Amino acid sequence: MWAKPTKQDLAKMPKLGETDKEGNATTIVQGHFFLEGNDWFVTEYDPVEELFYGFAILNSDYQMAEWGCISYQELKDLKMRGMFEVDYDKYWTKTEVQNVEKIKLGNGVY
Predict the structure, then answer these.
(1) How many domains does the chain have?
(2) For residue 11, what pLDDT band results from cuts at 50, 70 and 90?
(3) Domain range for residue 87?
(4) Which end of the chain is more exposed for a tag (fewer CB within 10 A), N or C?
(5) Is residue 110 part of a domain?
(6) Domain-embedded: residue 2
(7) How many CA atoms lie within 13 A of 93 on its CB side?
(8) What residues contact 52, with CB distance under 8 A and at least 6 apart?
């Protein structure tokens, strides 16, 4: 993984189960990971299990995009074509789910 969230970034995220979970329009997206046509928008984090909860869009496939758990270790290990790695959006501004265009395109707002 190229850019990673800081320990402070992770500590500020709600713990798993603390938010309204999937699709709630006003749930705050805490962070964004990306790699080519793949996006992971995270709303919660479990520091013990190193699991995020969020919305995943893989290979720009908005029809199959979904809410669920995302392994931080798997994000760190993921490489595409042997050289491209997942990146953490250091410039992400926390915002409500309803304001993230890609989540709306994937029908992830209820």
Answers:
(1) 1
(2) very high
(3) 7-19+27-105
(4) C
(5) no
(6) no
(7) 3
(8) 40, 42, 43, 44, 45, 46, 69, 70, 71, 72
